[in-house]
Specification:
Elements: H1 3-28, H2 40-72, H3 80-89, H4 96-108, H5 115-133
Helix pairs in contact: 1-2, 1-5, 2-3, 2-4, 2-5
Length: 139
């Protein structure tokens, strides 16, 4: 598969993942974000949203951003942070630090939480979801 076909495939994955995230975001917007106020169904909806948030973050940062940058500069190598910095330099993203926070949220999504920590985690996910959804303009 050539680099353009690879990028097209990743773009399609990202577009689908964004659709699913947008759907889940609309559902959790109507739910409480305090864990003690959630029933089993609502908690399941939050968990689905969390997984979709992580999936979009993964596809964009680990696949799309890398593929796009390497397509433009095949010799480019580096860490995830290097790719994020390069993505900012070429105008794919606006704020490196926001993307690093999104990455950290993605990384901690599988951990156990107290109710207070889970509430804060939910609030952070809600805060940064619009940044992920803004990728729809890019792809």
């Amino acid at each position: 598969m050539n680099s353009q076909d690879h990028l097209t495939s990743i773009t399609t994955q990202l577009q689908k993942a964004l659709e699913y995230l947008e759907y889940s975001f609309a559902k959790i917007a109507k739910l409480p974000d305090v864990p003690a106020e959630l029933d089993q169904e609502s908690l399941e909806t939050w968990e689905s949203f969390t997984a979709r948030f992580a999936r979009v973050a993964d596809i964009f940062m680990a696949k799309y951003l890398r593929a796009k940058i390497i397509q433009e500069d095949p010799a480019f190598r580096g860490t995830l942070r290097d790719f994020v910095n390069q993505g900012a330099k070429i105008g794919l993203i606006e704020d490196v630090e926001i993307w690093m926070v999104i990455r950290s949220l993605r990384n901690i999504s599988a951990h156990e939480y107290s109710e207070d920590e889970l509430h804060e985690f939910f609030l952070q996910l809600k805060k940064y979801t619009p940044t992920l959804l803004s990728l729809k303009k890019l792809v």
